[in-house]
Amino acid sequence: MNDRFPPLKANLLVVDDTSVYLQMLSKILTEQGYSVTTASNGPQALASAKQNPPDLILLDVMMPELSGYEVCKRLKANLKTRQIPIIFMSASNETEDKLKAFAVGGVDYITRPFEPAEVRARVETHLSLRNLQQELQQKNERLQEEIIERQITEEALQKSNNRYSNLAESIPATIFQYGFHPDGSQTFLYISPACQKIYGMEPQTIEEKHISITHHAHPDDKLALEESLRSSVNQFTRWHHVWRIVVAEQIKWVQGDAILEKQANGGIILDGQLMDFTELKQIEEALRDKNTDLAKTLQQLKATQEELIHAEKMAALGQLVAGVAHEINTPLGAIQFAVDNLKTFTTQILPQLPSFFRALPESQSQDFLALLRKAQENQETPLSFKEQRRLKRSLIPQFEERGVENAANVVDTLIEMGIYQYLESFIPLLTSLDHKTILDIAYHLVSLQQSTQSIATSSKRAAKVVFALKTFARFDSAGEKIETNLVDGIETVLTLYYNQLKHGVEVKRSFETVPPVLCYPDELNQVWTNLIHNALQAMNYQGTLTIAIKQQDNQVLISFTDSGTGIPDEIKSKIFEPFFTTKPAGEGSGLGLDIVKKIIDKHNGKIEVDSVAGKTTFTVLLPI
Asked: To which H or E segment does residue 469 belong?
């Protein structure tokens, strides 16, 4: 423990619902000479603190009836107890718990199991800080009183030099008269007995030895002090300066203030006071160091929160890997199939085409080209499997009656080519001697077009999934807000969830045109991911998900409504708390909605929830 802060014997209140810890802490602190009062729950603690306010409270976080956080809030809301320092105690070492402890007004956080020496040190430190704060407040009050007394003294000095001397010797500040003489010399003309507290010398010694005001100045401060005096004298303005002096190898802080008076002989007299500011400077430096430490801690907590958000995003991405892989493999499989078709065409069919067209009669050439055109026209409107089966059952008997050989195979081929109507005109072609070769060549030419179209469509689909994956996984280390189209982020997440959506979830979009929002897009994508993922789980991946975006005044409202089972009223107030989850072990960390709320708070927005059986809506409000 720092020698400047010896143990302060004081009244302490220890609050813990575990009797073992209560007895242990009481013993540790009593042995240090503290007067210890104990309480085993929140209501007892509140009653004890109000009846006999202690100097410091050690408060357990997790207690029945009232948690430590709630007890702290109530103490801070009471004028009688709000200044009492509170040290939280908990077995949890989580950053979020520590943040909450500081947020409700705690000054420190001790993690169990604790060392007695650590408890004693922290208690002594915060009692010392409280004592220093009280002393500082008292000193400030005394300072104000001294300033008033000095003003009264200065008014009295104008009336009587005798009264000036008497009053100067009665106040704790060092009163002085300091002369700048015409010959360039400087001396104290008068200095009150209080100078002994600053210089350690009697007034008579200072006056007789002609010690100047700069005599004991610290080497690093002497030039600035001389310049301050010279500037005030030259401009004839009120003098004020703070500097260090060295007396008996000790450094002290001194503040000097004076008004100037011109003399008939050309000299100038400074009438003023000197005050020892050493203790206040030490307190100021201690508080500055504490603030620096707190700032570093806050920065570390912010960095931890950002890492936690990124980790949650990667966890969500891990849950999507199987679906995303399927969404990429499906178009890749289609591309591979189309490539195989192209390879077959170029190696087996293409060499036959010159001889085929030379041998094809003119009349059949026209029908052959018409067949290809008809197939091309129907590529955009394919039939369902049910419609194809119905068409087959009606066409096969008709083709058999018209003498088409292997009518069933011919009908299958025509339907695969996309030819469903106006087949009567192709009967002559299909009953010719070479109809098998003609139909086979036509089928492969149509397959060539279908393969190229399949490659284009599948490539776009795969590219869309890859782009969505890249956008989602990106981590913006710059940490700067940018103007963002919210729809793009939501569509990115929906793309990644497509495999989970397509088999049983209907997604309804109601997107009004809204202006771009200045935000952190990566973090908002995490919000959309958590809300969509929770909605799907609530519906067991079967139901309707409605996503709406609209502008309301100077806000954008983004709502996610699912048709799931709803949120029970008894837990609705807890869903945004860290580590709260209703999912089975291993299926959720309980941090998802906590992170969502922190991200929304970071954007100065709000998140609301409304839930009944069969309809749950989470609404995010972001400022424009």
From this structure: helix 435-473
